[in-house]
Design a protein that fits this description.
Blueprint lengths: L7 E7 L3 E7 L3 H13 L3 E12 L5 H9 L8 H4 L18 E8 L7 E4 L4 E2 L12 E5 L4 E11 L10 E15 L5 H6 L4 H7 L4 E5 L6 H10 L4 E16 L5 H25 L4
Helix pairs in contact: 1-7
Length: 282
């Protein structure tokens, strides 16, 4: 009996905003579900209600409300402290179980120079839910103008509105595999492959073999294989080794974003199983 192959996850890049994984032993369908859930179902905090008490600036209330909605707020602690979007579906502010209150009350006196008000000027009822980019401009307040609003942020999901999505890029690709025969390498082929030093390094060892590429755009490589390097290299794509690239807005860390996506998927499968069992489907 063939042994079941264990899954392997390798972190090849991890920074404050980006994660790049090489994943082996997991079905494409599973990883694609994670990719989609990252964009659509992982909750973050975003402004959903704005009440204006004064706005004499040159920017309309609606435009300022739109900017507030797209302002990114840190949401790591919020996932543990506030009720889920489903629990708060019918809630209205100022329900503290669901909402974080955010206040901006700013004015410029006559004879004083105007200035921009920024995300850092917003006072929140929860200091852990604060702007990721404090320098984000809200509006310009000129001499003699004022702005006063109270906004309320809640947890939401990207499938409801993109402002709640924690990611800007969530991409899953097959791993390019280059088969090579160094004996058939021409000068023109070598020049064409100059943008892919890892391929040339493998070819220079002599003989034939394969090399996998990670995090590379292979459109140029395919051109070389088809137009210049006939017989010397062949480019294929392995569905057994997957590459996952994630870039986040900063509301959640990259690792937390992926972990939350796996939890969401587990909960969906659990609910489906419970409903099937309730129908006595065996």
């Amino acid at each position: 009996m063939e042994k079941k192959r264990k899954g392997r996850v390798e972190i090849r890049e991890l920074s404050e905003r980006r994660l790049f994984l090489v994943v082996e032993g997991f079905p494409v369908a599973y990883m694609n579900a994670i990719r989609r859930l990252v964009l659509s179902d992982v909750p973050t905090m975003a402004v959903d209600f704005v009440y204006f008490y004064n706005n004499s600036t040159d920017v309309y209330d609606e435009m300022i409300a739109h900017r507030l909605g797209l302002t990114v707020f840190r949401s790591e602690a919020a996932l543990e402290k506030y009720a889920s979007p489903e629990e708060c579906a019918e809630a209205e502010p100022p329900n503290p179980k669901c909402f974080v209150e955010m206040v901006l009350d700013f004015s410029v006196e006559e004879g004083r120079p105007g200035t921009y008000v920024k995300a850092a000027d917003i006072i929140t009822s929860d200091p852990e839910v604060r702007p990721v980019y404090p320098e984000t401009p809200i509006t310009y307040v000129a001499e003699g103008q004022a702005i006063h609003f109270v906004a309320y942020a809640r947890l939401g999901r990207g499938k409801e509105h993109a402002k709640w999505s924690p990611a800007t890029i969530s991409a899953l690709t097959y791993t390019p595999t280059v088969s090579y025969d160094s004996s058939r390498l021409s000068k023109e082929c070598r020049e064409c492959l100059s943008a892919y030093p890892e391929v040339l390094e493998a070819i220079d060892k002599g003989g034939s073999g394969e090399v996998m590429l990670y995090g590379r755009n292979t459109s140029g490589l395919r051109y070389c294989a088809e137009a210049v390097c006939a017989g010397a290299i062949e480019v294929k794509y392995s569905s057994k080794v997957l590459q996952y690239a994630l870039e986040v807005t900063g509301a959640l860390s990259p690792l937390r974003t992926v972990l939350e996506a796996t939890r969401v998927l587990d909960n969906k499968v659990k609910r489906l199983r419970e409903q099937l069992e309730a129908l006595e489907v065996k």
